[in-house]
Design a protein that fits this description.
9 strands, mainly beta, eight-stranded antiparallel barrel, about 210 residues
Length: about 210
């Protein structure tokens, strides 16, 4: 996924350079207000903050929503977004003395509020906090001798539905098209009151989207 993002970014930068050379004299759009739509995907994983016997592998998920680019002068702005975002992981380890493997998919409503730094018209650097609300969670268990009662205990753990995150990345603006790349991670763990016996983990993810701005 990292290699794909790097290659995509290099290709897009080449397109931006070509477009910039052919667009000399055109108006600078950095001080304009834009509303946009975007869709793409997440490459997400988690890490256990307490160092339990827990191994996780990344998964892919859908991401998409709306954004508003609000200028504060030519070089600075604010970009709030409202996104539907799938995260999750594949895991293996021990639970109540039994081995297991599991795939978890979590559906979030993500609301990033980012500062936009615009050194040139075609590049926007974005960084800021994000509020995430857990909409839905799906667990698929396989292997081992985990009983249905243990599965129920695991899936009914007291997970935090409100999570504070940090996100950073960049947008490449080519006329009305916007290609975005992000990296984010949770600041708060996703268990509720800390009484859980299951791994207390934080989400981390990469995100690539294609958008259209009006």
């Amino acid at each position: 996924m990292k290699k794909t993002i790097i290659i995509t970014t290099l290709v897009l930068l080449a397109l931006v350079k070509t477009n910039a050379q052919s667009s000399v004299g055109m108006a600078d759009n950095r001080e304009k207000l834009f509303f946009g739509l975007k869709i793409g995907g997440n490459y997400s994983n988690v890490y256990d903050t307490k160092g339990d016997d827990f191994v996780a592998d990344p998964t892919f998920g859908l991401a998409g929503g709306v954004f508003v680019s609000i200028p504060i002068g030519r070089y600075l702005g604010i970009q709030p977004e409202l996104l539907y975002s799938q995260k999750g992981y594949k895991s293996s380890g021990t639970f109540f003395g039994e081995t297991y493997s599991m795939t978890r998919t979590t559906d979030y409503l993500d609301i990033p509020l980012m500062v936009a730094i615009k050194p040139i018209e075609y590049i926007t650097i974005l960084v800021g906090p994000q509020y995430s609300y857990l909409l839905k969670q799906k667990d698929n268990f396989t292997g081992g001798s985990i009983s249905s009662s243990n599965e129920q205990i695991f899936s009914n753990d007291n997970y935090r539905k409100n999570t504070l995150c940090f996100i950073g990345g960049a947008d490449i603006n080519i006329d009305h098209l916007v290609v975005g790349a992000r990296a984010g991670w949770d600041v708060t763990t996703n268990n509720g009151d800390g009484s859980s016996a299951t791994p207390r983990y934080k989400n981390m993810w990469y995100q690539v989207t294609l958008g259209y701005r009006f």
